[in-house]
Amino acid sequence: MNVDGILDELGILPGINEVIVTTERDGVPNAAPIGIIRDENVTVRLFLGTHTYENVLATGQLVANVTHDPMIFVEAAMSDLGEECFLRRDGVLTLKDAESWALFRCSPYRTDIIMPELEFVRGEVIRREFRAINRGVSCVIEAAIAATRYNALRVDSYLEEIRRLKRIVQRCGGPREIAAMKRLEEHLAASFP
């Protein structure tokens, strides 16, 4: 099977794939929600000064973990995940509850925003779950992205976006999505008392 076929099997499809990227340096694990961009190449956008960027710069690799758990996206976006959230599989640091994972090699370079090309190394499907699309999950992920941008830029339009997305989560999400949205609001309130 070619690399495109393998990435399809792992759930990393053409377009921007929101995943939780795991990295580590000096034995310290890190997780962050990041978009893996798959078009004619596979790339990722990393930002200077983040733990993910520094870890990738030091190790030359990252792991894309596919998960549909909105709480993991919120926690990884707004705080550090506890060690209980990670698991080594075949020597690779992954999310414990990942549905699949893919190890990539990349060579970042020092600039404010980088988009290195990723080279697929190996991966594994842990479990296949068939599910309908839940708008609540998508909205929680969008809200987590807006929250990280608000934290970085302090632009009020991101708060308006979060409020709009919350209404959709309340209408379309299940208990896990509603709890994740509440947790996101708690993180924001703690950041700006």
From TrEMBL:
Pfam families documented for this protein: DUF447_C, DUF447_N
Coiled coil: none
Domain DUF447: 17-126, 134-186
Stored Gene3D superfamilies: Electron Transport, Fmn-binding Protein, Chain A (2.30.110.10), Hypothetical membrane protein ta0354_69_121 (1.20.58.290)
InterPro entries found in the cross-reference section: DUF447_C, DUF447_N, Split_barrel_FMN-bd, UCP018747
Superkingdom of source: Archaea
Protein name per Swiss-Prot or TrEMBL: DUF447 family protein
Organism (species): Methanothrix thermoacetophila (strain DSM 6194 / JCM 14653 / NBRC 101360 / PT) (Methanosaeta thermophila)
